[in-house]
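Field log, afternoon session.

UNIT: design team B
ACTIVITY: writing a sequence onto a fixed backbone
BACKBONE:
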């Protein structure tokens, strides 16, 4: 299972990515098996930089986002994103640990070779067309919601990110238009 071909999500075209460095977890056999009542992010992107430990970007895309003043909708929105990112990271780890044998063949060699003790994760929400000034409140709320995950896994301080389509282009995640 590959996502070297561009992926369309929430009005954005992600990729293409180098062969073997993207895992469409939302389409995996393991997710199909547990799908009922389990929300999950779109895909994982393995990023390696010479000499540094690998980082797996867990990617969730949205076409819009609730604002903090729209409670309880905002809290529900943040909780849904938290669940999707946490579930995707946990499912990938479970696949790597052999808990979902049916999905192991779907992992590319780069994802199979990741040293579990060295890998870091970046939990990323991309909101298409969101204004820059609206990103910090989303980041604050999502970071707070994911704090237990980040502490449990000793993720880096910048493990949670909220960006818009412009930020996604800057990070090479979506095509230039």
């Amino acid at each position: 299972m590959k996502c070297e071909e561009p992926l369309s999500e929430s009005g954005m075209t992600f990729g293409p990515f180098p062969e073997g460095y993207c895992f469409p977890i939302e389409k995996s056999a393991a997710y199909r098996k547990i799908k009922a009542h389990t929300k999950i992010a779109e895909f994982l992107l393995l990023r390696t930089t010479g000499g540094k430990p690998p980082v797996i970007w867990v990617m969730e895309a949205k076409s819009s986002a609730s604002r903090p003043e729209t409670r309880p909708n905002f809290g529900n929105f943040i909780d849904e994103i938290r669940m999707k990112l946490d579930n995707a990271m946990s499912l990938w780890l479970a696949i790597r640990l052999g808990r979902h044998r049916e999905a192991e063949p779907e992992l590319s060699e780069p994802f199979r070779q990741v040293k579990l003790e060295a890998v870091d994760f970046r939990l990323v929400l991309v909101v298409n067309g969101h204004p820059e000034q609206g990103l910090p409140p989303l980041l604050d709320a999502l970071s707070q919601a994911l704090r237990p995950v980040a502490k449990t896994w000793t993720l880096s301080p910048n493990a949670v990110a909220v960006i818009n389509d412009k930020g996604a282009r800057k990070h090479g995640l979506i095509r230039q238009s």
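LOG NOTE: The CA atoms of residues 3 and 90 lie 20 Å apart.
NEXT ACTIVITY: expression trials, pending approval
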